[in-house]
Amino acid sequence: MSIETDVSKPSQAEPVRRARGRPRKAVHERDDGNRRQELLRAAARLFRQQGFGATSTRDIATAAGMRSGSPFYHFENKEALLAAVMQEGMKSALQRQASAMDTAVAQAAACGHTLSARECFRVLVRSHFEVLLGPDSDFIPVMLYEWRSLSAAQRSEVNRLKDSYEAVWVPVLKALHASGELHGDPALARMMLFGALNWSVQWYDPARQATLDDLTASVVHLFLKRLE
Amino acid sequence: MSIETDVSKPSQAEPVRRARGRPRKAVHERDDGNRRQELLRAAARLFRQQGFGATSTRDIATAAGMRSGSPFYHFENKEALLAAVMQEGMKSALQRQASAMDTAVAQAAACGHTLSARECFRVLVRSHFEVLLGPDSDFIPVMLYEWRSLSAAQRSEVNRLKDSYEAVWVPVLKALHASGELHGDPALARMMLFGALNWSVQWYDPARQATLDDLTASVVHLFLKRLE
DNA sequence: CCTACCGATCGGTAGG
DNA sequence: CCTACCGATCGGTAGG
Fold first, then answer.
1. What is the enclosing helix (H) or strand (E) of A143?
2. Helix H segments across chain B?
């Protein structure tokens, strides 16, 4: 279907490209990174809405304002596009996590005290909710629910990022366990906690429900015991 | 779509089915239910492993020992097969939940006391883990992670079953909240709890990790406060 | 339930 | 990045 009208077919002497015309955006070839980013955002949105398997590369191209073959100029194949979405999502999550912790630590220091494990926990949960539910939050849900479609190599690449994201939580949960604020095996508790948080992408409706601060407070009360 | 072959339209004297030929397995037509079940199990396994979009109806047919066109004798289309997997999973989950509660109530009665909310909670969590991780546990993960591929009508059908499954938990969580064993909004706690439990299908390895009883005990300790 | 098939779509590529 | 295209696969069906 959709046989393209080949308007510009025969002897068309290369449109002589005079190198002085437009100083910026020369042949719209090497200014991408922009276009690549648009592709990633479109892919993330569609992969999340419809699933990887139900989204065609044509869908993505159209959503990014391109023709059907063009995504393959930026990505080797459809799976590489999926992997890039996930890596992009994890990198931005890592950044958000680090900056949230830095800010909190700095604020505490300005008040002349250090962050308690409980406060660390709150900051991490809050940052995680932002990653999951905040603006540009299609990337991580795609990672959570489409990893089956990755090759083994791509999967272990994404897992590296995920491990370093989770590693930040480990000492915090251990400290909470040591203080008696968190019961049971911290590793198991971490799994349960991530499950509880990640599931929110399935039901959270920003229009009708609580704010991310409300959610965070709930999680803290639900998972942590009072210290006394 | 799907124009039914109106075989029995005009003057077609009903294909006289001689009731005496072969007593069992007459024309291998009406002894299915067996084959249908095999299709469902194969579909559940493949949908879970590879995802709905990445699984072809040919894959499923082969796994069930059929030819490529045969699944469509049992199911109108691929989506109907997916919907059937989910409904099958939810019906069996509802049965397991009901029988677990019945057994527990009967046992308590035999000992001359009633089930506490905490004991109810434990029974429900344990039954849920069995649904998620026990034998024949491909159906529910498919429901959890492939509902995007359902039509709106199919989705609301599945949601009816899911709602009645969750409804059993509501009074239990309310009682736990009333007694101070569960903090925060019970509805929100239910979401978090299901997230924590359902996530286990992503990491639980029966070979290397705790038993379902261990998991259940962990969840009880993690989510419920001591009553004193 | 099988055989034999069809139309559509899809991932991907050559060449510019 | 577009044009023009290909081979493969896929969901689904007619007819028995």
1. helix A139-146
2. 34-50, 57-63, 71-74, 78-110, 117-133, 139-145, 152-167, 169-178, 186-198, 200-203, 212-223
Distance CA A64, CA A37 (A): 9
Tokens (6 digits) for A75: 């990505």
Q: A29-75 adopts what CATH topology?
A: Arc Repressor Mutant, subunit A (1.10.10)
Distance of C1' in D14 from CA in B7, Å: 11
> What does the alpha-carbon distance between residue B71 and residue B39 come to, in Å, rounded to a whole number?
7
User: In chain A, which residues from 150 to 209 place their CB closer than 7 Å to nucleic acid strand D?
Assistant: none
Q: Give yes or no for B197 touching A (CB within 8 A).
A: yes
Q: How far is the CA of A46 from the C1' of C9 (A)?
A: 18
pLDDT at B56 over 90: yes
Q: Give B-chain residues touching A199 at CB under 8 angstroms.
A: 191-192, 194-196, 198-199
pLDDT tens string A177-205:
999 999 999 999 999 999 999 999 999 99
For residue B144, the model assigns a pLDDT of 97
Contact B192 A191 (CB under 8 A): no
Lowest mean pLDDT among A15-24, A72-81, B145-154: A15-24
| Model pLDDT for residues A44-93, shown as the tens digit of each residue | 999 999 999 999 999 999 999 999 999 999 999 999 999 999 999 999 99
Task: Answer for B63: CB within 7 Å of strand C.
Answer: no
Interface of B with A in 48-87 (CB under 8 A): 49-54
State how far residue A65 is from chain B, nearest Cα, in angstroms: 25
Q: Is the pLDDT of residue A139 over 50?
A: yes
| B183 with A51: Cβ contact below 8 A | no
- Domain spans of chain B, in order of start: 29-75, 79-223
Q: What is the DSSP string of B120-170?
A: HHHHHHHHHHHHHHSTTTTHHHHHHH-GGGS-HHHHHHHHHHHHHHHHTHH
**Which residue's C-alpha is at the least distance from the C1' of D1?**
A70
Does the CB of B2 sit below 7 A from strand D?
Answer: yes
> Which residue would you say has higher pLDDT here, A21 or B171?
B171
CATH 1.10.150.130 for domain A79-223: no
Give the model's confidence band at A113: pLDDT under 50 very low, under 70 low, under 90 confident, else very high: very high
Confidence of residue A228 (pLDDT cuts 50, 70, 90): low
Q: Rounded to a whole number, what is the distance in angstroms from the first to the last CA of chain B? A: 63
pTM above 0.85, yes or no: yes
